[in-house]
Amino acid sequence: MKNMVISRRTFASATVLAAAGVAAPAVWSQARPEKSRISIAVGGKASFYYLPLTISEQLGYFKAEGVDVEISDFAGGSRALQALVGGSADVVSGAYEHTINMQSKNQFIQSFVLQGRAPQIAMGVSVKAMPNYRTPADLRGKKIGVSAPGSSTNMVANLVLSRAGLKASDVSFVGVGTAAGALTALRSGQIDAMSNIDPVMTMLEQKGDVKIISDTRTLKGTNDVFGGPMPAACFYTHAEFVQKNPNTCQALANAIVHGLKWLQTAGPSDIIKTVPESYLLGDRALYLASFNKVREAISLDGVLPDEGTRTALRALASFDPSVKADRIALGKTYTNDFAHRAKDKFKA
How far apart are CA 118 and CA 348, in angstroms? Predict the structure, then answer.
């Protein structure tokens, strides 16, 4: 009979999990992850958008949770999503809005831990190529650099264009990645404007290469652009994977929230010591300036705000006719069960 006795807290938590469609018994009876090796696809790992992933990897937090992660880096989030759909990745470290986009195509993927509570995407026009820029309407017929077509940087650019009465077809989007290649593309005149993430955008801004016209690197800026909180980077995967591998998802969520906890008190020197040297793009001072600019955009506890899901849906539906707001079940695009337990574990 001893084995049949469970606490009220355990029973309540298991009930919540069951209601969410997650295999509750497996979560509580198995401490060990169902999968000890996990392949993670990411688009632009060196950017601050995915800093929690890098921190958790570099500090050994995934190994501490019993999972070996193999991280494949792609040019942009849309490419990472393709890896998941194609079966070459188990999990994506990518933008939350992809869960909504995929549901509009009748494919159900689910976010299970948040890394960023603001998109950290800035859009700027080249001072050299567009010295007389006045409004976004001036972008008609121009070449706009994004990390990869279909990525979250592309989404923000589409939103800016739509508010100026322009369609995506009124410009040309060019994939430039999120690192040195993006800097070169703008400075060499290959593109006229760019929507990208840090440290790239801060480096261009501080060197006087771009004029920023839209900025979601702060919570206020995000609210100004989207009209509410906008969740950004998260871990997402097929809903079926979450149901079949709850302990694995919990281990991954634990590792990320552990990294988020570390980031809350980390100083500039801690960041420099932890990230790979190549991430600094040859300028430590500018890298740290970029970090200070986006620091508040990093999630504190891995929990995705309900209001943020509604903001994301409104934004996508405003310019993408394939996303019908009344046909999207937001509750199926994310779960906070794993993040809440990780938050409790690490007191994040």
Answer: 18
Instruction: Give 230's Cβ-side CA count (13 Å radius).
Output: 29
List, in order of start, the domains of the chain with CATH numbers: 31-118+230-346 (3.40.190.10), 121-215 (3.40.190.10)
Token representation of residue 87:
């079966």
**What average pLDDT does this structure show over 143-170?**
95
Per-residue pLDDT tens for 208-256?
Answer: 999 999 999 999 999 999 999 999 999 999 999 999 999 999 999 999 9
Burial class (CB in 10 A: 0-12, 13-18, 19+), 345: middle
Instruction: List C-alpha distances in Å: 63 to 36, 66, 71, 250.
Output: 9, 5, 13, 13
Q: What is the largest CA-CA distance in the chain?
A: 79
Residue 211 · residue 136 · CB < 8 Å: no
73, β-bridge pairs: 42
Which residues have a Cβ under 8 Å from the Cβ of 142 and sit 6 or more positions away? 129, 130, 171, 172, 192, 193
